[in-house]
Amino acid sequence: MSTLFSLIKRDKYLLLMFSPIFLYYVIFMYVPMPGMLLAFRNFMPGQGMFSGEWVGLRWFDQFVNSIYFWRLLRNTFLLAFLPLLFGFSIPILFAVCIVEIKNQTFKRFAQTVTYLPHFISTVVVAGMIINFLSPTDGIVNTLIAKLGMEKVNFMMDAGWFRTIFTSSDIWQSFGFSSIIYIAAIMGIDPEMYDSGKIDGVNKFQELWHLTLPSIKPTIVILLLLSLGGIMSVGFEKVYLLYNGATYETADVLSTYVYRMGIEGQNYGFATAVGLFNSIITFVLVFAANTMTRRLTKMSLW
């Protein structure tokens, strides 16, 4: 016990810095966990969280057999997987390019410009997208009209939603995501590159045989963390961008839970859908971790 107190005294300032994060997870992640029981009850507001008839798996069965089940599952997976598929390699390549830039002024400028979108509010980003793609005076449709083509109402066309969502997500995140890769590349022993130059390797060979293998552990860990959130598509951006005309390609599990729970006041059903989403996410993370451990000998646990 004395050892524990001595460690706490030694690291008191680090623990103080960590305390807001710890409290956040306790209050918003662990304290609400008993609310999962709502998924198995016919909850009625005003009667208490643990009141109401026990209905077992009724809400799960109702959701799985609903006409929206496969649409929601498909949209949630695609809107999470497409940015990962097309955007995961971009921060890595950008980090390599940044490290290779010799002009420090231009390097700082490029980093600043690409980092800034990450700090823009989702509401502002959604507003920018809607304004830029406006069918009346948006800059994109203005250019289309200048080229002699017919204007497109992008935000009311379900076929365009995934493209808009994926491209805006990549633009907003790739610069900030590259920070970890830049740090990993900067930590590579310079003698490895000197040895490569002596052996006559070119830049592509240097990238393929030296840089990427050296940062492979970082890539694997970040890939696993990305897979962990593959079923947790950002609710805010989808909710701000979608509408009734784009439900076919835009409606995801989180927005469906919001409509059923907050707007429809069907709290038990909404909790069941949210719990189903969490179970699928856990299965995907566990499977991805197991597969990665077998293929690369690296994993989260």
Brief summary:
The chain is an all-alpha fold and 301 residues long. It contains 16 helices and two strands.
- The termini sit apart by 29 Å
CATH superfamily: MetI-like
- State the CATH class: Mainly Alpha
SS class: mainly alpha
Order of helices and strands: HHEEHHHHHHHHHHHHHH
How are the strands of the biggest sheet laid out side by side?
1-2
Backbone CA Rg: 24 Å
- Here the CATH topology equals MetI-like fold
Largest sheet: 2 strands, antiparallel
The number of helical elements comes to 16
**What portion of residues is helical?**
over 70%
Outline type: globular
The CATH architecture can be named as: Orthogonal Bundle
Query: What is the β-strand count?
Result: 2
Number of structural domains: 1
What would you say this structure looks like, in words?
By secondary structure, this protein is mainly α. It has a single domain (51-294), classed as MetI-like fold (Orthogonal Bundle), CATH 1.10.3720.10. Helices cover 70% and strands 1% of the residues. It has 16 helices and two strands. It has helices at 2-10, 12-30, 58-64, 69-87, 89-100, 104-115, 122-132, 139-146, 158-186, 190-198, 203-214, 216-228, 235-241, 247-250, 253-263, 267-296, and strands spanning 41-42, 53-54. Strands 1-2 form a two-stranded antiparallel ribbon. The radius of gyration is 24 Å and the shape is globular.
